[in-house]
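ok so for the tutorial part 2 we go from a plain amino acid sequence to predicted structure tokens. step 1 is just haveing the sequence, like this:
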Amino acid sequence: MSHSEVFVIGAGPAGLTSSYLLTKAGISTTVIEADPVYVGGISRTANYKNYLFDIGGHRFFSKSKEVVDLWNELLPEDFIERPRLSRIYYDGKYYSYPLKAFEALGNLGLLESTWCVLSFARKKAFPHEDTKTFHQWVSNQFGERLFSIFFKTYTEKVWGMNCDEISADWAAQRIKGLDLRTAIISAVQNSVPQLKRSSAKTADGEVIKSLIESFRYPRRGPGMMWDAAATKTRAQGGQIHMGHTLDALSYDKKKKLWTITAKSASGEVKTFTANHVISSAPVRELMTSMPVAPKSLANAQALRYRDFITVALMVKKPDLFPDNWIYIHVPTVKVGRIQNFRSWSPELIPDADSTCLGLEYFCFEGDGLWTSTDEQLVALAKRELGELGMVDAKDIVDGCVVRQKKAYPVYDDAYKTHVDAVRADIDANYPNLHLVGRNGMHKYNNQDHAMMTAMLTVKNILTGSKAYDVWNVNEDAEYHEAGNEGAQEALKSVRMVPRRVGEKD
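step 2 — the prediction. this is what the tokens look like for a chain of 505 residues:
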């Protein structure tokens, strides 16, 4: 039986941020990761015959200086600056995303654009007062007609749900600060040199994350970041057990000690003990592994997840289109988004004459897409590229498939109730259990947000306090103090004196 002061479940951005910072401070740390090969979770970089590609595409942009500083510390010499270009493909035409008002209305034609503007004006005059659904939130921001054209089809592909079943929380988090008025102002500013800005802002001067024009990116993919974090964790004395899944964990309240068992792919069971557990595992899996109250277990099991398939196609043409990715708002095909990995970084491609496209399919584990063979999925992707008129089938020379379980926590109308109930149980009964990251907190966030939740958790552990409430990290990876007394003092003590867990003043 192996003992460490902190045990970390999952070697994704949140888990490895935790392990790196803890071992840097001299805290003994053990990590388990289910994947036998890759660290980084959904932020890993896959490798197929020296073609490198993301599981989704990960821009490195954050308004948090602490997160940016940590990126630079982990990967000081391997970032490149990349132009940001994403477009929507709809009805045979391309539209910038975020929407450029004049372009979108021009492409739609005079009659349709008139209807869109009138629809927007009507919704501003008679908005949904109590926005509960994605449909209500977006129609308030863009009008009913633009919602149906540019948001409905793609969103329902992503979630496999009607937009009236999706919580407004998801829209508010992912499209924050953006509406038709902002898009028009941005279009005017960009058409007049004296008014042009590097990025659009809300009325209070906040940068709109969706409108950034460039981003940083590791030259050989985001996996470089997490490989570096894993390497440095080990160099600082931490242990990372690859290919090990959580089997069970229990807490001895008297000893304040966790006992954790993990299984390897071969069925070997390892037992660990720890003072603290940091979990980035899906909430449903975590709570199922613990002896929790039936009500808490029921709430955890009610949480839902959307799964994800990337079909990577190798194409013998280097310059297909300049976009990082294209959203496919075409209901006749199943593909939801297409990545062009040469546009992310030329170093992801092993030669100068080809590129790699990532066709993204959203599904539920066990459904028809998920259970299709790799050959069937590659054939589907080739066929749909042809239907969209983007690539000639003869130029596609190879392909592979990557399946990603629980890629997206689902924001249905009851998710918040379930998460709050699980949180209440953990707060009351498991003070040394810390939830972090996207699946660990059931929050659809970006990697910088996941990192910030881990950074604050580490500060709490190092100071033996609860000064930082990680649930107050917002979608931009910024921390709201929210009246947390002692937080600044805790931060000072972390910076000045790295402490052992449980060490007293």
